[in-house]
Amino acid sequence: MITPMTVGFLLFSIYPIFWVLRWSFFNYNGYSTPEFIGLENFIRAFDRDPAYWASLKNTFVIAGLKMLVEIPLALFLAVVLNNKIKGSSLFRVVFFLPSVFSIAVVGLIFSILFSSYNGIVNALLRAGGLISTNIGWFSDKKTAMFVIILVSLWTTFGLNIIYFLMGLQNIPKSLYECAEIDGANTFQKFFYITLPLVAPILQLVLMLSVLGTIKMTDLILVLTNGAPGGTTEVVMTYIFKYFFSYGDNAARDVQFGYASAMAVITAVILGIITLVYLRVSRKMQELEG
What we know:
Layout: H1 3-23, E1 26-27, E2 35-36, H2 40-47, H3 50-82, H4 88-96, H5 103-113, H6 120-127, H7 141-168, H8 173-181, H9 186-197, H10 199-214, H11 218-223, H12 235-243, H13 256-288
Antiparallel strand pairs: 1-2
Helix pairs in contact: 1-13, 2-13, 3-7, 3-10, 3-12, 4-7, 7-10, 10-13, 12-13
Membrane topology: Multi-pass membrane protein
Domain ABC transmembrane type-1: 56-277
Organism: Blautia hominis
């Protein structure tokens, strides 16, 4: 009964890992004769390719700034919706709906909304008297990064609301009743009951948010494609463009070997971050216990 799942796991998970590991030691473009070059691809990434590390830095900047807004916002809205306010079911659907949309379609829509010449956002800002000339949202790194974080936040915070709601609904109401009898106010109940009991969900949401942002690819390709001048490139789009003749890399040869080496380095960095996070979380749980 588990044979189909096992075959799928080996074919679509394990085999690609070994495929990437193998070609990371080769100079190979997919059709020519592979040339074994040892650690040359890794040396190139560490010593001669600052653009790769700039894309990795952009990835962590987006992840960090996004989490500062996304996690508190999702938790706040989850607490509000958990109080059975009028129309809460409708709001849950509305907040969750962006998570269902195709990321590529979302990126295309927002690229039109934030267009420098005929975008709706610039039109609304001009109509409100907030700006006198159109803003080139994708012509400056700061504004382009702002749009990326905004769109990424819009597509994912609804799912995090669902996660927090699941945790909130498992908290016994008797705890809040006892706290009210003892004279606890709303803030005290949140910080001493709600927050500690949703901590496991919070840890999960934080990890998923970091991993999801690091794997971000299609949104960047459609929304900015690294513009302006590759300054908004993230690590996965940078690797993608070496695997395929796409965008700024269209004039260059496909480099499976070098792309594989960067993928291995990124996977190792991601694995280290995950292990450190899990270890810190475990230590915090032990201290709380």
